[in-house]
Design brief:
Largest sheet: 6 strands, mixed
Mean pLDDT: 92
Distance between the termini: 60 Å
Number of helices: 13
Shape: elongated
Order of helices and strands: HHHHHEEHEHHEHHEEEHEHEHEEE
Structural class: alpha/beta
Strand content: 15-25%
């Protein structure tokens, strides 16, 4: 293992441990006086168990009986979301307390009732996590209507459904996949596109739950196409994922393209995270598009919406991406807004149109706060260039 990776992991785990210790200390200060002294050890054992459950489930899950590995992962995933909001609220409370030390604006009743403040924090976090869990399982259908000023053979329009970031695995399982498949089929699209992170690292649940059979139920007239995101590579099973998806009737484009119905092109870029794991370096976009007739409409699937100028300069008409999750948990959308030129929705850059989806599934915490999971429906109208 490279030295810089060891240092990075040491920093991450140290920070993770410090956050859980901070939450534990504040919790004990709020509620410890109400507990028998002998319960102190049990309190810290439970907290440590919650803090370690996700890591244990993900790292050691393959050595444990499936029910224990899955149970630890799911329990730990919910704790990650609760931990996030406990930490944010407690930091906010401590900042208010520090400010009060100088200005003395808080009522004495509040300052003398840490248990009531602690209970309010617990209820607020529990409510947020509960809402986020419900929200994450109730996707919306988001509609875009756009025009590409190119002729597409005999086609005057194309009805597309795009779904990114499904993250199939222990948490997003086959039951939810089947619900998604039915929703897609109800829309009756001409074309279905999956721009990455279909599988959440571990290929095991995909195979065990026969999720390929679910994908095979998709029957759009012009086919189902996909590219890989970073998570297909992180798990080290990209070749198996490729095989299973192809067997299910999904055309996986890995730095290649396909001309469809003699009318338009779908170009699929491999994710640039691939080379850091088990994949090769991806091609530059101009090299990938050699042989593409850009007088016809060109749709690009690229999981991460970076360097949009490259797609514009290469003659791409429509880029479809995901990856951002729109932060998944508020307020992290404020960070994705800084990182990406567009972290969600529609953007036009001269001749290039871009749609970034916040995704269907979740990674890590199985909740969404501040955004909704989505299925993206796009109606593309083809016209000739303006006269």
């Amino acid at each position: 293992m490279k030295t810089h990776l060891i240092i990075f992991l040491a920093v991450v785990f140290s920070l993770y441990g410090a956050i859980n210790l901070y939450i534990g200390l504040r919790g004990w200060q709020a509620f410890g006086r109400f507990m028998p002294a002998t319960y102190g050890k049990l309190y810290w054992v439970i907290l440590a168990f919650l803090a370690l459950s996700y890591l244990t489930g993900r790292i050691a899950g393959k050595y444990l009986p499936a029910v224990f590995g899955s149970g630890l992962t799911i329990m730990g995933a919910y704790w990650l979301s609760a931990m996030n909001y406990f930490f944010l609220l407690l930091v906010l409370i401590d900042l208010v307390r520090l400010t009060d030390h100088w200005f003395g604006f808080l009522p004495e009743g509040i300052k003398q009732s840490p248990g009531m403040v602690g209970l309010a924090v617990v209820l607020l976090v529990a409510g947020t996590v509960s809402y986020g869990a419900w929200n994450s399982r109730n996707p919306q259908i988001l509609h875009y209507d756009l025009t590409i000023e190119k002729k597409a053979g005999a086609l005057s329009q194309l009805h597309v459904v795009m779904v990114s970031d499904i993250h199939l695995g222990i948490i997003v399982h086959n039951e939810r996949l089947m619900s998604l498949i039915h929703k897609i089929n109800d829309l009756n699209p001409d074309l279905v596109l999956f721009p990455g992170d279909i599988i959440d690292e571990n290929i095991g649940p995909f195979v065990e739950q026969k999720m390929g059979d679910s994908f095979s139920l998709l029957k759009p007239g012009y086919g189902t196409f996909a590219v890989f995101g970073n998570h297909e590579y992180i798990g080290g099973h990209s070749e198996e994922a490729y095989t299973h998806l192809r067997e299910a009737g999904v055309t996986v484009l890995r730095d290649n393209y396909q001309k469809v119905a003699g009318s338009f092109y779908i170009v699929g870029r491999d994710d640039h995270a691939g080379e850091r794991f088990d994949g090769p370096p991806r091609l530059d976009l101009p090299a990938l598009m050699e042989g593409v007739d850009t007088s016809l409409p060109v749709i690009l699937l690229d999981h991460q919406p970076f360097r949009l100028d490259e797609a514009r300069d290469a003659g791409v008409d429509l880029q479809l991406s995901g990856h951002t999750h729109l932060g998944q948990l508020f307020p992290y959308n404020l960070i994705t807004r800084i990182i990406f030129e567009t972290d969600w929705g529609y953007l036009r850059k001269e001749g290039l149109q871009v749609i970034v989806s916040c995704g269907f599934g979740t990674w890590g915490p199985p909740i969404r706060v501040g955004n909704k999971p989505e299925i993206v429906e796009i109606m593309i109208h083809f016209t000739g260039p303006p006269e």
